[in-house]
């Protein structure tokens, strides 16, 4: 991208260093002060910083464009027009936050005939490809059979075969890109009681998914994503974690459950679901976001950060109980309707890293004691102490030590990257409804 005067390349390490230098003094004193606080708790701050620097959450390729709702989409300036420009924007997020080393693609939205060029573009940006997402919840132009009444569970075997074929193609594309998992979310379901035979629909799902399962390379996972409702508004075939777990255990050991935080009724105890899936050995991944009502796909940690912390409390507890077990796939899945998507994704990746670092601060020995002694108040206080610890200096130090920006939003804004994109990429006119 050609730069005009007064604008910088936010991926340039010298630009980032120049942005950091006026902030270093304050960071040093904040970091030392926090170090003293944690030392009194018997925690070595540098160890937490090292762990935070190793943390990563994948960027959803569909999240770097402005998204919308069923009512409308209001495109922003400098929208990425194809997967290559989406990768360029993901590269900016990674360069400044150093917390998003992989990208999760969605097919066919990210389809390209030149996978080698795509892989090379990603490698140049220090990005890898996380799980690929299939799409049988929309009809593509020229598609022979419609998914209006379902895909993998459609009553017509030809439609199911078409959907199975698409998923097998997604796996082949993912293999060429170095992905290790297929995220399978289908919108299949019914709007009215009686519209579906609820048992037969699930049996059709298991039959179709088993034909996708056999197409998985040995080192791949199939991540089954449940969702309570939408686009179906009465019964969704994979409606909840129980159905997802049933499907995973039926399909085989490579089938795991993916938890999208927005796919539950308000107030559902998601950390409890996570604890159960960990117990079952079938927790495969996450789509992090936040919500107040439905599948709002808001920025992670923007509505209820304590809930996000409690999920990571379960994950860190499990990792300490079973050291060495591979972590689930961490991915964001958000819809940025009113913010600059790059800013929202940077902030969200930092919020996920924040609750991870806070979960590392939980005094688990003390917590265990209070739990065994039924000291409910002190047990709750032990979690609250970690959650109310401002780990900002740890996250900023981790970014700085990894070559990133101490303040990514400030650096991004002063680079003028969005204005550069607006100048280079013609304005998108499509204001049609829909998430992308
Ligand atoms: C469904 C979902 C799924 C994606 C889509 C973009 O609501 O969470 O993960 O395929 O959003
Ligand atoms: Mn999702």
What is the distance, rounded to the nearest whole angstrom, between the alpha carbons of the first and last residues? Answer: 24 Å
Radius of gyration: 22 Å
The hetero compounds bound to this protein are:
6-deoxy-beta-L-fructofuranose, manganese (II) ion
Low-confidence stretches: none
Q: Roughly what percent helix?
A: 40-55%
Number of E strands: 11
Q: Note the overall shape.
A: globular
**Could you give the order of strands across the largest sheet?**
4-5-7-9-10-11
Structural class: alpha/beta
Individual helix count: 15
What integer is the average pLDDT? 96
SSE succession: HHEHEHEEHEEHEEHEHEHEHHHHHH
Strand fraction? 5-15%
Strand-helix topology:
Layout (H helix, E strand, L loop, with lengths): L12 H28 L4 H10 L4 E2 L22 H15 L4 E3 L10 H10 L3 E2 L2 E2 L23 H21 L3 E4 L4 E2 L7 H16 L7 E5 L9 E2 L4 H11 L3 E6 L9 H10 L3 E6 L16 H17 L7 E4 L8 H20 L3 H9 L3 H12 L4 H10 L6 H8 L1 H8 L12
Parallel strand pairs: 1-2, 2-3, 4-5, 5-7, 7-9, 9-10, 10-11
Antiparallel strand pairs: 6-8
Helix pairs in contact: 1-13, 2-10, 2-13, 3-10, 3-14, 5-6, 8-9, 9-10, 11-12
Bound molecules: 6-deoxy-beta-L-fructofuranose and manganese (II) ion (MN).
The site of 6-deoxy-beta-L-fructofuranose (LRH) has 9 residues, from loops.
């Amino acid at each position: 991208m050609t730069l005009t005067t007064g604008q910088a390349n936010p991926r340039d390490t010298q630009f980032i260093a120049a942005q950091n230098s006026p902030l270093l003094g304050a960071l040093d004193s904040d970091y030392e002060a926090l170090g003293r606080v944690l030392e009194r708790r018997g925690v070595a701050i540098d160890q937490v910083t090292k762990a935070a620097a190793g943390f990563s959450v994948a960027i959803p390729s569909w999240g770097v464009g402005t998204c919308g709702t069923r009512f409308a989409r209001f495109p922003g300036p400098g929208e990425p027009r194809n997967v290559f420009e989406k990768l360029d924007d993901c590269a900016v997020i990674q360069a400044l936050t150093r917390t998003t080393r992989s990208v999760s693609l969605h097919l066919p939205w990210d389809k390209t005939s030149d996978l080698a060029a795509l892989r090379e573009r990603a490698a140049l940006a220090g990005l890898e490809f996380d799980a690929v997402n299939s799409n049988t919840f929309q009809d593509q132009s020229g598609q022979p059979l419609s998914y209006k009444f379902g895909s993998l569970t459609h009553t017509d075997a030809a439609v199911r075969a078409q959907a199975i074929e698409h998923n097998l193609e997604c796996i082949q594309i993912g293999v060429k890109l170095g992905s290790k998992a297929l995220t399978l979310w289908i919108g299949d379901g019914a709007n009215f009681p009686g519209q579906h035979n609820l048992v037969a629909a699930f049996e059709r799902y298991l039959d179709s998914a088993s034909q996708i399962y056999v197409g998985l390379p040995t080192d791949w996972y199939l991540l089954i994503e449940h969702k309570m409702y939408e686009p179906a508004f009465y019964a969704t075939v994979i409606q909840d974690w129980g159905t997802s777990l049933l499907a995973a255990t039926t399909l085989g050991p490579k089938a795991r459950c993916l938890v999208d935080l927005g796919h539950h009724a308000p107030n559902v105890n998601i950390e409890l679901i996570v604890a159960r899936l960990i117990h079952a050995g079938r927790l495969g991944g996450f789509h992090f976001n936040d919500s107040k009502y439905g599948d709002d796909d808001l920025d992670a940690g923007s509505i209820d950060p304590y809930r996000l912390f409690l999920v990571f409390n379960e994950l860190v507890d499990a990792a300490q109980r079973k050291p060495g077990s591979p972590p689930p796939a961490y991915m964001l899945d958000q819809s940025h309707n009113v913010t600059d998507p790059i800013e929202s994704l940077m902030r969200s990746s930092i919020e996920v890293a924040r609750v991870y670092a806070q979960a590392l601060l939980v005094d688990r020995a003390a917590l265990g004691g209070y739990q065994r002694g039924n000291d409910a108040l002190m047990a709750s206080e032990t979690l609250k102490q970690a959650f109310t610890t401002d780990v900002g200096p740890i996250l900023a130090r981790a970014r700085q030590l990894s070559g990133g920006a101490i303040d990514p939003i400030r650096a991004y804004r002063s680079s003028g990257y969005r204005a550069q994109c607006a100048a280079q990429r013609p304005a998108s006119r499509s204001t049609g409804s829909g998430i992308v």
